[in-house]
Amino acid sequence: MPQEHVISIDPSKPLSQEPRTGHNRWHEAVEPALEVDQGDTVVFEIREAFDGQLNS
Questions:
Q1: Number of CB atoms found within 10 A of residue 24's CB
Q2: Taking the domains of the chain in order of start, what are their residue ranges?
Q3: Contacts of 33 (CB under 8 A, 6+ apart)
Q4: From residue 12, how far is each of 15, 17, 51 by CA, in Å?
Q5: Which of 1, 17, 33, 53 could form a disulfide with 13 if both were Cys (CB 3.0 to 4.6 A apart)?
Q6: Which residues contact 1 (CB under 8 A, 6 or more apart)?
Q7: Taking Cα atoms as reference points, which of 11, 29, 7 lies closest to residue 20?
Q8: Model pTM score
Q9: pLDDT of the chain, 56 residues: tens digit per residue
């Protein structure tokens, strides 16, 4: 049965405080955050481009 997987972040923290939630390259030495089966759904929570540095 297909599953839904969620990769979540804490938007109140910068990437430097949650390094496992960021991605900057594809390389075989980088451990996968998740492995899925065919038919599974993956939901990514993402940071905005400035990583919370701009405030209104």
A1: 7
A2: 1-56
A3: 7, 20
A4: 10, 10, 10
A5: 17
A6: none
A7: 7
A8: 0.66
A9: 999 999 999 988 998 998 888 877 788 988 888 899 999 999 999 888 888 888 76
